[in-house]
Task: structure prediction
Amino acid sequence: MNAVPETRSRCLIVGGGPAGMMTGFLLARAGVDVVVLEKHVDFNRDFRGDTIHPSTLELLHELGLLEEFLQLPHEEVREIRGIFNGHPVPIADFSRLPTHCKVIAFMPQWDFLDFLSRHAMKFPSFTLHMQHEVIDLLFENDQVEGVRAKTPEGERRFLADLVIGADGRHAITHTKAGFQLREFGVPIDVLWMRISKRENDPPQSLGFFRHGQLLVLLDRGDYFQVGFVIPKDSLEGLKQSGLTALHQGIVALGPFLKDRIAELDDWNKIKLLTVQINRLRKWCREGLLCIGDSAHAMSPAGGVGINLALQDAVATANLLAAKLRKGPVSLADLELVQKRREWPTRLIQAMQAFIHRNVVTGHESKSGDSLPIFLRLFEWFPALRSLPARFIGIGPRPEHIHSPAAE
Result:
């Protein structure tokens, strides 16, 4: 029987999403020997977050990459507006943010990840393996010492002084580590689909709200990526009602889509995103740290999940890079990451839960078409728009690049 091949590195990152790729980039930049394992063949997958927030653009500025990044195709939004019960309402104005870029950039996530991975590969200590699916953790004396992965060449073992779990909300890392997950009930799910775009379509920046229902359209150039909020666990009931009922629900929120809604002629063209808000009670144990969605799954509300994941990555590098370059890190070192990032996570999740309870529920209300008083305040007092702009665009406790750069 042939032995399973194995390799060793200082740090092994499971998952090549925003948290994993940014952490890998920053650690390699600091001279840490780091390996990233991504289970897919490439980054090109639909229905991922597209928002690059002002705080992320600020990080790219601090890394000297902003000018090159902005050469990639993207859309810029300087103000977020929503259509509430037929009334256009400005919600967030980014013009006063203390950042170099006072916009949200909309870019397909695969382009962002390609950009990060391309620059990470310039560092000799960085290795990225695609089509490497982690299937188990490896332990020695109750300490995580690596992972077992399926690869195109067969099963392999990857050993490391530190494993970072950045493998998303269905993480094999936090599951195999036995971490406890605290779930917060969310009353909605989201249906994702594509609908073609026309030249005279109105600009989309946030979405269409009506009596607790929400339709979001993300501009992909020649088509919209559409998110339609439904009540939790209601998909099977919708299917029994038929596609026509779904068409009517979408068109009721976005009437201009009526001339092309028939493009959705098969349920196979519609994907379900099960919305979750949860977080781990403990993010780490000896040899393992979980960050991003692996540590805390976020709702799509505000599009802040990618921003929070990237902030985790920066904090991880700030706190651990210099120590990792010299040798292994302790459990106490890993706990500092959770201590740093748990408070902003709790605050954002509480705000998302409030939005779901009071604004977006997926259920149609019988109330009139008037605007709630808190939305009218944004119309009457424009200065108030800077508050949601800061919360969405920067977030609580924003991180900055303090990790070292190897000479």
